[in-house]
Amino acid sequence: MSTLTITALKDILRSAAGEDDGVDLDAEILDTPFTELGYDSLALLETAARIAREYGVTLSDDDVDQIDTPRELLDRVNAAARA
Amino acid sequence: MTGAVVTGIGVVAPTGIGTEEYWRATTAGASAIGPITRFDPAPYPVRLAGEVPGFVPEEHVPSRLLPQTDHGTRLSLAAAAEALSRSGLTAAEAPDFGIGIATASTMGGFEFGQRELEHLWQLGGQHVSAYQSFAWFYAVNTGQISIRHGLRGPGATVVADQAGGLDALGVARRQIRKGTPAVVTGGVDSALCPLGLAGQLSTGDLSGAHDPERAYLPFTREARGHVPAEGGAILVVEDAEFARDRGAPVLGEIAGYAATFDPDPRDPAADGLPRAARQAIADAGLEPGDVDVVFADAAGRAGADRREAAAITALFGAGGIPVTAPKTGTGRLYAGAGGLDTAAALLSLRDQSIPPTVHVDATDPAQEIDLVVGRARPAALSTALVLARGRGGFNAALVVRAPLPGKPVHTKE
């Protein structure tokens, strides 16, 4: 299973939940909370569903609740993919 | 008790995106009824519709909202943005819970729902969008508009088919009477996808004609049903004093409103429309003689048209008042019709001109109404009655009155 990169995650976020007008996703966002990026819990559920389809890693709703930043999401997905 | 005044209109209609574009086309008697282009209608008995042409979602809806919105919700967001912009109202201008919202919906986000159902059956549940949880839902326009514009006052969604558009305005007026300074209201519907059309076909009320000029002919001997359409209007309604204090443009007042329900659909004499019309006029503190023009529901079915014509002549006398149905140029807009007809009525009062009923050459002689056909008719207008009926026995009537002399009047762009 391939590794989920921040670039791929940005593409998934844009396609799953759009991009807030006041937010620059191309900036350094690894440690910016999803809430500051304009993504609410439903946007993250949709993102998680796409990751599950494309990367074969299923995050539970509880997992999604506990993830605050893109870095945490990448770490969780890639750790699960290696396991 | 202070009045409820309209301070902004936003329109997305088959005949125009934007209030003035719609109004120019409507007064010119333009028609947007044509073959369905959104999908191939060949397998269906109905091939015509009034589609909103050239709507580019990216121009009206933030990117963030595109993946989570149905086409109809995007249309409603565009209309709400225009209405608020024209009224000059923003959340910052009102107390924290001072702006409410009440919209009408007939079908919800069918196109979005159809796509996700296709994903479910073709690809599996993992492929259904998380946004399906609300994107298809009747209340979604109310929700998305309120979130986008920070409207934190009382929220409502009315579902009463075509009557719902007027009922939403009635709800807005009630919220204002209870102390909410302003309410964003009206309705926008869109279900021009195979699933939506299938749902509408089940009513048996749609015209199967293939000639756009002859498909929707209310009040004529050729009436064979209606053409479905999408779009509608969103209005900003405000407490008159609140609007005056902030110097808002006033297009007119919601002077009267009433809703009735037909007691028994098998009994034509039980038609609730005349009662709704009478009660709305009385609610405005007026007599029928004070009304200058009627915007008809115009079902386009022989029996329903005859009953509406009879209701009008019972109130105003045979040929006693000009009657028009500009929705003959758009098709029937379901929940979108009440707001759009009210917008047209207010613009008629502004311009002292009644837009024509299009495609209709001559009414059924048995229906003794003075239908405005051919071209717009200049007239001295201060008060208009708007009628709407919804499938299932819903009737609604609304009276709008021009601003009183000396009060600020909305200026033309």
UniProtKB/TrEMBL annotation, chain A:
SMART domains: PKS_PP. Pfam families: PP-binding. InterPro entries: ACP-like_sf, PKS_PP-bd, PP-bd_ACP, Ppantetheine_attach_site. The keyword Phosphoprotein applies. Transmembrane segments: none annotated. Keywords: Phosphopantetheine, Phosphoprotein. The keyword Hydrolase does not apply. One of its GO terms (molecular function) is phosphopantetheine binding. Residues 3-81 form the Carrier domain. This is Act minimal PKS acyl carrier protein.
TrEMBL record, chain B:
Residues 1-402 form the Ketosynthase family 3 (KS3) domain. SMART domains: PKS_KS. Its EC number is 2.3.1.-. InterPro entries: Beta-ketoacyl_synthase (IPR000794), Ketoacyl_synth_C (IPR014031), Ketoacyl_synth_N (IPR014030), PKS_Beta-ketoAc_synthase_dom (IPR020841), Thiolase-like (IPR016039). GO terms for biological process: fatty acid biosynthetic process. Pfam families: ketoacyl-synt, Ketoacyl-synt_C. One of its GO terms (molecular function) is 3-oxoacyl-[acyl-carrier-protein] synthase activity. It comes from the Bacteria. It is an enzyme of class 2 (transferase). Keywords: Acyltransferase, Transferase. Coiled coil: none annotated. Belongs to the thiolase-like superfamily. Beta-ketoacyl-ACP synthases family. This is Act minimal PKS chain-length factor (CLF/KS beta). It comes from Amycolatopsis endophytica.
